[in-house]
Design a protein that fits this description.
Radius of gyration: 19 Å
Order of helices and strands: HHHHHHHHHHH
CATH topology of the largest domain: Tetracycline Repressor, domain 2
Largest sheet: none
Number of domains: 2
Shape: elongated
CATH architecture of the largest domain: Orthogonal Bundle
CATH superfamily of the largest domain: Tetracycline Repressor, domain 2
Distance between the termini: 41 Å
Number of helices: 11
Helix content: 55-70%
CATH class of the largest domain: Mainly Alpha
Structural class: mainly alpha
């Protein structure tokens, strides 16, 4: 019985987070908690027992999203034939999550508070270590330019996700695919132009506790 209760609790939590992500992206951060509960198929009391307020829900959603991305990265690294293919797949799958839309609806002060959460920072660090492994391996086999680091790539993806406006008459998926391919092509050695400075690594940003990635 205890195992069943745990399974039910996990299922409820996953349903709430999935519903919250969908509604927040489509309707904005002000969507009522009651609407999230209804969309998740759970009672309002169940939602508030798991997440007593909106900040707690957003914090859990942030961790859940980063953990999901980490699993995407691990799967790509395990199943793709080489590191460049794994990195390319991971970047495309990350873009498909529409993280830019989710990020844009969160108030800057709240976003800063979320990024300072130890749980979120730990999850993000785990993700970046896996991506760094992809990059180092791809650079070693000659499939990726050698003058970039994991933070350079993470910031590049982040900038891509912050699309400033939609282009009329263009499907968002098509535009994302075009921009993603342009970004990936820029990481290939054949397109390399000498960059100023040196590659930015995790060690470089560890000095800044509130750095957003």
């Amino acid at each position: 019985m205890t195992g069943q209760l745990r399974a039910d609790a996990k299922r409820n939590r996953d349903q709430i987070l999935a519903a919250a992500r969908e509604l927040l992206v489509n309707q904005g951060v002000g969507v009522p908690m009651e609407e999230i509960a209804r969309h998740a198929g759970v009672g309002v009391g169940t939602l508030y027992r798991r997440f007593p307020d909106r900040v707690a829900l957003l914090r859990a959603l942030s961790v859940h999203t980063v953990e999901h991305m980490t699993e995407l990265a691990r799967t790509a690294l395990r199943t793709e034939p080489d590191a460049w293919s794994a990195l390319s797949r991971f970047v495309r799958e990350s873009v498909a999550l529409r993280l830019g839309a989710l990020r844009s609806i969160v108030d800057p002060q709240l976003r800063s508070a979320l990024h300072q959460s130890d749980e979120i920072r730990s999850a993000r660090r785990d993700l970046l270590h896996i991506v760094e492994q992809m990059i180092i391996t791809a650079q070693a086999d000659g499939s990726m330019r050698t003058d970039v680091g994991v933070v350079d790539v993470a910031m590049l993806v982040s900038l891509h996700l912050k699309r400033p406006f939609d282009v009329p008459g263009t499907m968002p998926e098509e535009l994302d695919a075009r921009l993603t391919q342009l970004m990936l092509d820029g990481l290939r050695p054949a397109s390399a132009t000498v960059l100023p400075g040196k590659p930015t690594t995790l060690a470089d940003v560890d000095w800044h506790a509130d750095h957003e990635l």
